[in-house]
Specification:
single chain; alpha+beta; Beta-Lactamase; Helix Hairpins; Heat Shock Protein 90; 3 domains; 11 helices; rod-shaped
Length: 481
Amino acid sequence: MRFSRSIRFKLISLYVGLLTVIFICFGAYTYYGFHHFLIHSLDQALNRRALQIASTIVEELPNRGPAYVAGEIQARYAPELNERVIRITDSNGEIIYASRNTDLLSPYVPRGNQTRGVEEQPFYREEIQDRKQPIRVVSLDHRLANGLVCTVEVGAPENDIAKALDHLLVTLGIGFSILILLSILGGYSLLGRALSPVDEIVSAAEQITFKNLSQRLPVPQTGDEFERISLALNRMIQRLEEAFQIANRFSADASHELRTPLTIIRGELEAMVKSPTLTSDALQRVADMLEEVERLTRIVEGLLLVSRLESGEAQMQITTLDLGELVNSVADQMELLSQDKLLTMKREINLNVFVEGDAMRLKQVVVNLLDNAIKYTPEGGTIILGVRTNKTHAILEAADTGIGIQPDALPHVFKRFFRSGEARAGRIAGTGLGLAIVQSITEAHGGMVFAESNANAGSQFRVELPLVHKEKQNNDIQLAT
């Protein structure tokens, strides 16, 4: 159903439909033209036969009699063997000669004194007797020297014409079917070539992300709609790039500018907490403000980090490191938090899984995933932390038996400031930047992050990072030693 709405299907349908109409018109013209040609040829042959019989045989009737006429016709023309019908009748209706198959003809009807000479055009007619095949008949009136008028009738059934037309129909049907099939295949191939610029545009568009908005779509120099579409899309991408740069600069600049006043406010509040003149009520209010400042500081720091990572301005110290060892180290540090909540942390971590990356940034990925799992898993739940490999990637997995994520919320979990229903209701603390930071750091390392979840059945996050080739691992080990 979806393919039937595509432009390729519509163009091929129109193309094949037009060819089909042309083939049908051509076939009909060929059929009726061939039918007319065969009838005309048969009439001409019958005409010549009637003229020959009248001028060479019937002309001798007064001198040699009917027996001579019958003998000559049988000897020369053998009408039954050649599927011809011959009947010769005088003006009184007396039959001078009739072949044995004259039952195909209608009874002779005298035409009175209307006579024609041999030089005049014969009279043609078509007869259908007893639902048999039509028979073409030529009637020729010939005046003899003694004044007697004889009518020569020569006929032939249209069996051969019908067979030829049937063969023509079969030939046209098979030929047109093959031609239509070839036109479909040819049209599909030609449309594939004609629409190849669209495939190139789509392929290039799929590769454009917020990280490479400077890339542009190929512009086919065809002077048609494809070129116009490419130019229009490139102008749109340029506007998006400019808008993204403005938004990113604003986020980074605003976050950077907010750091200083937040630091000053935090310092002042910390000094006020140490003041002995504050009442307990005032001290509690200052502590609450200090907690909110800390939360704002974390939001600003996270937003600044995401902005720098997405713009490629974040400085990272890339080294070859063992992801399994890094994850084990972080898990040791955060296990106390899970124990405070009576959670069981299981580890399925393989060592000697080497990747290239910034250790501090990757550590932040593990911290955020574990912190997320701890916050959203009720007491007595389980967290599973794993590191494994496939052929090309190192895989970090963090799964929990927590509250899970609703299906409609799952596509948005990596967006900035997105929070689930319970988090938005204020039952779970957080900034909504943790998973956005995980995605930004992962993509900055050339990896991908995925989320799977079922409501009330836990969640699983999977981070895939490119593996370091063994040759590069050996080189890095030799340089380190």
